[in-house]
Amino acid sequence: MRRRDLLKLGGLAALGATAAACGGSGSGSAGDKQLQFMYWGSTFEKKAIEAMLAQYSKKHAGVQVKPLYTPDEYDVKLNTLVAGNRLPDAGYVPMSMSFRLGEQGKLVNLFPYLKKYPQLAGYLPDAYLWSGQDNLHAIATANESMMLWFSKSATAAAGVTPPAEAASAWTWDQLVENAYKLTIDQNGKRPDESGFDPKQVKQFGISCSFTYGAAWYGFLRSNGTDFADESGRKCLLDTPEAIEVFQNLQDLVYKHRVAPGPGQLAATGDEVPGTNILLKTKRVAMVVDGHWSLLDMNESKVDYGIGVLPKYGEPFTASQVAGASAVFAGSKHEQEAVELLAFHNDPRNVDLFAKGLWMPQEKKYYEDQAAIDSWTKNELHPPEFRTVVVDYARDHGVPDLRNRLKNMSAVSSDVLTPALQEIESGKRPAGEILKAAAPKITGLLQGWQHTQAL
């Protein structure tokens, strides 16, 4: 919500500079082919991408790549470049926008290139983003998945051990039971003890976002339901299984008092600290968050552990929780731009995999032991990483809704997010809110995105 509000407010002053950068000639010799790569990310990601682009230019004689780092208001700036027909050659594209641009022919169809570049043909099936039959408009940049992060010292003090394998995942009741042990107020009392003060909680047991779909989508699938039916045109959030999931989330806050409510974690305004800060300060003992937090955990020297998410039936986790990467139509050097696309998320070329920000897209990095070791066998990946991340994502991952459901941006902004915020507020039961929201969402649904096997 905060990001969408910022986009509405504008911040258009920087657009002229971005457009000028996309029209620039870059660096290098006069005879070099000039490419531009547009991307967002943290300062850590910026450094890694710049190093990767320099390496690409070094390995491809006669080609120079200019990085177009755009950390803020990416959607607004990219839309402006599209409107002005001043697009870069390749780069990141917000997931929902990628489908629109693919349908409009603003992105190069990568399908014909799969035979020429076998690496691109060896990705996980859910990494491919299709705008129609044989129209592969982009790939998901990284195969990020959700998991349970925890403070080792906090869990050790309470005698709690979050499971590191899907086969031993907690049930929801077990999660609640352990969250009680990990929640303490300023006087050291727990929620099931007399005198517990819910307004003076020193450490919450668990935190899970209500409004971030990837945080709860695995729970929804684990409980035997989905966001929409097989046609993608009927919302299923008013089913008993979906209502149970969201009522359980609401109960963590208002019934069990083991999770923070709105504003209880904010340091200033409504800005909640990152998971690395929440665990390091022991403001929260366990947090549902994505794999990408590993980079910040290590950079911040957090004493963390990782575990699998709790389950209802079969355990599931949301995967492919990432933006898209694409080649923009109209590039004067399309083949080189496609080569750059294949190069830019290869673990051999960029250290964001070994450092913990990204998970690879090629299947071999989840199946071949030597390939797995190449990005996970280092001091930045904890011993349980193989079972919590590699095996868990491979065997129990379901693709993020943004990869699959059409019109998801409008669904979220118009109906879903306000409904989830109301559930988070605790003013009405989850079922009452979802039964009112589901028909409105159904009215907006346009089906699942196209998929096809290679």
From TrEMBL:
Which keywords does the record carry?
Answer: Signal
Classification via SUPFAM superfamilies = Periplasmic binding protein-like II (SSF53850)
Keyword rRNA-binding annotated: no
Give the matching Pfam families.
Answer: SBP_bac_1
> What span is annotated as the signal peptide, if there is one?
1-19
Checking InterPro entries in the record gives: Bact_solute-bd_prot1 (IPR050490), SBP (IPR006059)
Transcription recorded as keyword = no
- Check the record and name the PANTHER family matching this protein: ARABINOSE-BINDING PROTEIN-RELATED, DIACETYLCHITOBIOSE BINDING PROTEIN DASA
Task: State what protein this is by name.
Answer: Extracellular solute-binding protein
What species is this protein from? Nonomuraea zeae
